[in-house]
Amino acid sequence: MTAVEVVVDRLRCAGAGQCARTLPEVFDQRPSDGRVLVLDPAPPAALLERLTDAEDGCPVQAIRLVRRAG
Fold this sequence. Notes:
- By secondary structure, this protein is α+β, with helices and mostly antiparallel strands.
- Helix content is 21%, strand content 29%.
- The strands form 2 sheets. Strands 1-4 form a two-stranded antiparallel sheet. A two-stranded antiparallel ribbon has the order 2-3.
- Strand 2 (27-29) and strand 3 form a beta hairpin.
- It starts with a strand and ends with a strand.
- It holds the Pfam family Fer4_13.
């Protein structure tokens, strides 16, 4: 099984909210500026496909998934 860590670049984030719409269990947006807020930095591997969708869907590539064999 692959463990996944979610890493975000908050300075790069444009606040588009695509990640929060794709995977609200893991991502939200800060009320103050709309930028990404990671709710679960080490989500279950069962969410890998949707995590990849969120990573790929970020218009400014602010999300990176670090995969580790576990």
